Amino acid sequence: MQQVFKSLPESYQRGMPNYPVPAILIGKLAVNNSVKEQALGTELLVDALFRAVRASQEIDIYAVRVDAIDSQAKEFYLQHEFIPFLDNQLSLFLPIESILQQFVV
What we know:
There is one protein chain. The protein has 105 residues and is of the alpha+beta class. Helices cover 41% and strands 15% of the residues. The chain contains 5 helices and 4 strands. The protein has a 4-stranded mixed beta sheet with strand order 1-2-4-3. β3 and β4 form a beta hairpin.
């Protein structure tokens, strides 16, 4: 349990609960290469984040987590304000609070 906290950047370790951090893991989020320039990946991500926010209204969720398949995918998530874990640079998270600042629910 303590290992999870150590993988978060220090500024996110403060105020964390003493139990496993509740998070939603987004599985593979990808679009076909033939439509990459149409921003469908961003639309899929926004839809997934909106669903996470809706779920967080009923259950306690601290963050949305993704495991980027490569550095290009990581860059996509970084552009959307995801934060890399310290122990695995291809795993990233976005706190629900940050998402809520972008959505009016």
